[in-house]
Amino acid sequence: MQKLLTRLQRFRTGSPLSFRLLAYIIVFSSLFTLISSAIQIHSDYRKDLSQIDRRMKVIETGYTSSLARSLWALDQKLLQTQLEGILSLPDIVHLRLKIEPDSELVMGTIPRDGKTISHAFELTHRGDGMFTLGELTVTADLRGVYSDMRQRVVEVLTTQFLKTFLISILIILIFQHFVARHLSTMASYARNFSLNNLSQPLKLDRPDSPLNRHDELAQVTDAINQMRERLVADVERQARDAEEIRKFSKAIEQSPSSVLICDRQWHIEFANHKFAQLTGFDAESIIGKHPGMLSEDARAHRENRQLWQSIRLQVQRVGVWQGEINSVRKNGERFWEQLIVTPIKNSNGEATGYLILGEDISIRKRYEQQLLRQANYDILTGLPNRMLALDRLKLALAQARRESSLVGVMFLDLDNFKHINDTLGHDAGDNLLIEAARRISSCLRGTSTVARLGGDEFLVILPGLTGPEATAQVAERILKTFAPPYLLNGQEVFVTTSIGIAIFPNDSDNSGTLLQHADAAMYQAKHKGKSAYALFTPEMTEVSHERLQMESLMRRALEQNEFELYYQPIVRTDSGELCSAEALLRWNNPGLGMVMPDRFIPLAEETGLITPIGEWVMREACFAAVRWKETMGISIGISVNVSPRQFRDPGFIFTVMNALEASGLNPQQLELEITERLILDNTIETADILRQLDQSGVRLSVDDFGTGYSALSYLKSYPFDTLKIDKSFVRDVMTEQDDAALVKAIINMAHSLGLRVIAEGVEEEAQTHFLQHEGCDYSQGYFYSRPLPEDAFREWLETNHRVR
Ligand SMILES: Nc1nc2c(ncn2[C@@H]2O[C@@H]3COP(=O)(O)O[C@H]4[C@@H](O)[C@H](n5cnc6c(=O)[nH]c(N)nc65)O[C@@H]4COP(=O)(O)O[C@H]3[C@H]2O)c(=O)[nH]1
């Protein structure tokens, strides 16, 4: 019982459904039992009543004749006995016998508060007729019936209630076991159901029988589990979507391009970090603004209004706008931006916003502009280059044709530029070009063009001239501005220029030909002596042709064996004894005749042909010296000229060593003549090459001393053995006091530095006396001998072999 109560209690608290169910079952089943019991009791009551009624009828039928006989016979005793017999019948409590005519016999008592039922019947005697003897009224007491009925009600109610209650409990227990506890499990599963335990399916604690598998609980469980699976799938999809969105938003946020997202009305909704970095605008502060209206600059607004109008139209029409725009940063600074503007469309293809991707292309733009500049301008001087110059020339010619005016074309070349570049170094050369460009430009008016064609060549275009004389005036102005010295490497250097002039349309109406003519005129100017200008004349074409021809002939001269070495003796000044010879190059061309080095060596230097030629000279000179020793027994030194370009050739030392090795000449007998200008270059490479040559035993001399920049200091730092005074000083020692003083000073200075001195260009005896007097060690010149071909030189040796 206790157990039952506890269970009931549990139902009441933990399982309201079970409790309610119990209550309903009890109430309904009790009602039902009550009604059915009432019907039953009522029917039993009716049965009891009808039984009494039947009993009355039985009394009537059973006793009517016997009582009538007793009355007829007036047998009182029998009557008494018969009445007592009736009264003893169950429930009969009262008998009233009315005897005709007026006596009455009453037996028994009628209960005062009890319910009774009476039945009366006549007692008759059938004889000759029918005689009514009396009437008997039988009264039955209904209390027994009622008491039975009450007892039955109590019994029925009690038993029915207990039955109902117990059955209900049973039903509830069954319900609880088979349904309610599973519902509770479901409820608690549903209560605890969260995103964290989506993986656990709902499981009911009941056997997995085929019956269980298909009942309603199984269906609900399946439905819940399916719902869970769908939810898991949804959650996973959502997580995936969220991850993708996170990824995309990270990508956008960290994108190296600036990103703006605008709504349909072009109001900014989002700006990424790069945008803020690029423009200086804080992302928060520009939300809601139009992308073209961010800066405060009214001018930018005006520019942008039209631009963004066309962007909007194109995006609507074509679906994309791409271009480069000049944007403004928050601080007002302008920068170049490459923009791509596209609509953001929804699944129906309607634009819901706009995506603006931007990239800072300022560097690229700068680079492009630089490239454009580089393509058209000379980097060093900033002047237009050959390409742009030719364009401008063509434009000027076209304009001149329209206006019937003249165009002057000037070709300028710096005299000795190569030499300055070689000796003072490239930096000095560059500075010279910059300064020369500045000076040329300063002589021209706005419509003229000055361009650098390359190297030390400049082109001046003078458009819109009315007469050719104007070109001469400009040329003179330019020559004049070149007069003041240039300051290069701290030294004052005089640089001149040669100018060639051709005039359109007089000399040609074609730009290419005009340039060629100006070039030819420039060579003519150079030949005039430097710092000159020349106007083109038709004969000049021949000169420039000659130059070209010479170049192509020189390229074949080595193969054709057209080069020859001449030798000029170098003697002791005091005794006239022979001590060495200088090898001097000659070019013996069948067409050109004997070409002197001054005519072809500069061209050989320009074209680079000097390297193979110099190699040939070196070998030839070394072999000659060895031959003289071998065939004539005369051992003298041999001097070989080395030009700057040759000296700087990476294979130069190898060339020298090779010649010495191949010929077997003692390195001490080889003297390399290096011009003063070359060593002024003062580079580490020059010093290194000179040191290596010195270490190999080769002697080194400074050639043409005095013609360069007369910087004496370098002589100390290089391993020179000899100094050759240039013939231009020696020539006038007897007539020019200054030259004499200079020669004296050079001799003293050289001696103080431990150098021997050779005087070049000694032509007269008086000069030998002077030099002897001043202590000049060696002399060379026509006075002793002109440079001679080998055979003649051998003859000279045989007759004048006073060798030291
Ligand atoms: N007026 C006059 N001139 C005299 C007298 N004595 C000699 N000379 C000339 O003076 C030049 C001396 O040679 P340089 O100063 O080295 O000047 C040489 C040298 O710098 C260069 N040269 C000659 N041969 C070679 C060579 O094989 N290689 C290189 N790189 N340059 C060479 O060509 C220059 C000219 O050579 P050359 O015409 O042979 O001219 C020679 C020679 O003929 C004289 O008493 N009076």
Could you give a quick summary of the protein structure above?
This protein is of the alpha+beta class and 804 residues long. The chain has 26 helices and 26 strands. Strands 17-18-20-21-22-23-24-25 form an eight-stranded mixed beta barrel. Strands 6-5-9-8-7 form a five-stranded antiparallel beta sheet, with helices on both faces. A five-stranded mixed beta sheet has the order 11-12-10-15-16, with helices on both faces.
Note down, in words, how this protein is organized.
This protein is an alpha+beta fold and 804 residues long. It folds into five domains: 164 residues, Beta-Lactamase (2-Layer Sandwich); 50 residues, no CATH class; 112 residues, PAS domain (Beta-Lactamase), CATH 3.30.450; 158 residues, 2-Layer Sandwich (Alpha-Beta Plaits), CATH 3.30.70.270; 242 residues, TIM Barrel, CATH 3.20.20. It has 26 helices and 26 strands. The longest helix has 57 residues. The protein is rod-shaped, with a radius of gyration of 71 Å. The structure holds ligand C2E. The site of ligand C2E has 24 residues, from strand 18, helix 16, helix 17, strand 20 and strand 22. Its EC number is 3.1.4.52. GO terms for molecular function: cyclic-guanylate-specific phosphodiesterase activity. This is cyclic-guanylate-specific phosphodiesterase.
